Amino acid sequence: MKKIIIAIAFLSFGFKSFADEGMWLPMLLGEQVYADMVKKGLKLTKEQLYSINKASIKDVVIIFGGGCTGEIVSNEGLIFTNHHCGYEAITAASSIEHNYLHDGFYAKSKQEEIPAQGLYADFLIKIEDVTKEVEDSVKGLNDVERSAKVQSVITAINARYSDESKSILGKVSALFKGNQYIVFVYQRYNDIRLVGAPPESVGKFGGDTDNWEWPRHTGDFSIFRVYMSKDGKPSNYSPDDVPLKPKYFLPISIKGLKDGDYAMIYGYPGGTNRYETSYGVKQKIDIDNPSLVNLRDVRLKLMFEQMKKDPAVKLQLAPEYASVANYWKFFDGETKQLIKYHIYDQKKSDEEKFLQWAKGKPEFENIFSDWAKAYDTWRPYSKQRVYLNEGVFGSSLIGFASSLQQVEIALVRQGGGDIKKIMEELNAERKKFLEAENKISDEEIVAATTMMFYSDIDKNQHPIGFFESLKGSFGDLKDENTYKKYAAALFKNTMIFDDSKWNAFNANPDATVLQNDPAYAHVSAFLKNWQGKYFSFSRQFNITNNNLGRLYMKGIMQMDSRKIRYPDATFTMRVSYGNVKSYNPRDAVHYDYVCTMKGVLEKYVPGDYEFDLPPKLIELANKKDFGQYIDKQRNDLVVTFITTNDITGGNSGSPVINANGELIGLAFDGNYEALSHKIAFDAVYNRTICVDIRYVLWCIDKLGGASNIINELKLVKQVATK
After folding, report:
1. Which of 84, 217, 522, 677 is catalytic?
2. Helix, strand, or coil here: 681?
3. Which end of the chain has less neighbouring CB within 10 Å, N or C?
4. pLDDT single digits (tens) 155-180
5. Catalytic residue selected from 20, 59, 210, 220
């Protein structure tokens, strides 16, 4: 254990060659990083990795739907991504009669492909460094002024690089905690169609039990297609649109892999904070993560109770449940790994080194004393913010009710807004809300989270009079039945569920009627309490924390100017590289680098919520009918594999690429032993879990019978030897 701790601590100020850490900007790869990639096995040129003027791998990697990554795999705009990335679109396309989520779906022709409203694909066109423009605009400003000015300048730059008429978007990203600013320019395509997905029992095999775990046997993939207008331009959905003709697409290798093979992952990692302070680590361990996990745990249990009773409810709640569950387990695991690997102590050690260097340097020497004061001021109110976001707003009804605050502002403040326009937008939002709402589980969530707020948040921070009124009308505040009765009354009497009351309010919006609505009164009490008393603490902390983080990063780069660094993830294109690699998670335990169909069948539990399987899959697997996708060395079908690559949320669906630039899998998860990765990369245990492309193709071909999709791909097969 001591060796592991020392090694990880060294990473903070050491050289890149120590481990496979790094989410590198492919457009700014230096010679040393590229040389290290070649040393590990890469056989491509830098221009093949990223080029503005020629087709390259960067042209196949897309932002998929705003939170995931996808890749182009055919000359007709076919997209591979994860099942959980396409989950909402698959659910939206499903019904009880045509339950594609449960049964799977493969379009046997382009005419059968299903429009996925709301999905889009962003292709990176170019990047430009705009650091000087931003920095010149904030000279001489204090922290508060700087924060506001940076945002206004970024907004202006984004507008300058964007062209809505051509579906071009400019997005400035602050790198190295605001020490560098780069504008990323994207071409957006809005006509995206569902082409295929395995049954949920394959795409989510193992469910929450196996989430973030290795061994893993999940077929986490789905298939979409990008369409364009006939004249080759981005377009909203039209039946006249045609498949995109991409600049480049990935060939697919079915040659297989072995331990030690080179692996490269392109994608859009959402966010890391590798230079987080010891104060931030302590905040996460003591307050933020435990609060979030407890609140999500309650919500998940209440939703699940209804989902398992009725297939229609399962279909209705599936996207929300999946979203809540994914990071419930992550943050629980993150806390445990931060403690296990003594990350707080490592950060303190790094900070002591920095303080020694900073002595006599006015710009840097007081950073940590200022940080301590900022956390001391903010910490007493930080738990309330989590309970608002994950508790009060954990209810779909209360979340929608919160949007009515803009109506109240428009009614009671001069110049508060166009009430007619606001109501038109809210009518559309209400319709969507009612379609997705499950009253039974949501009512229970309101009851449970209201009681948790009362029990867990400092009484001095409660909304004035709220709980006293609740007690007077419904009973003892320590009795959960009190909150159940309160929630039942709220759901029964709110106009949000009552068309006649809503329509009357819509025809004649009235502030008193709104303020007396029980759902709005509920959320208003918590919102106004926060906005009036505590928001200023949150805002000031964020401004101070961001500014000190920028200075700390600036100082670190000056302290060791020789080190080649990658910026934290910011949902901008990155490439990480490493190797397929087995590992030993603990004493006397060895994890192989692949999982096979044998393991899938071993986990199979007929009728189980998480480990059931389609009958056809079992039939094909028992016959070993794996076709050209079989791994001949194992005489089995490889389902998943692991690599040492550095990824995080947002990389879901990312292409895993071999040394020759061929697709070998899709990244979809990390391992439990390294869930501290957002804050501290673990050079020993970190693994990325990937679905093997051969399993993807087998599911499409053999299980799904969609040979038309296979015929569209460029497969690279093993060269026969004499």
Report:
1. 84
2. coil
3. C
4. 999 999 999 999 999 999 999 999 99
5. 220
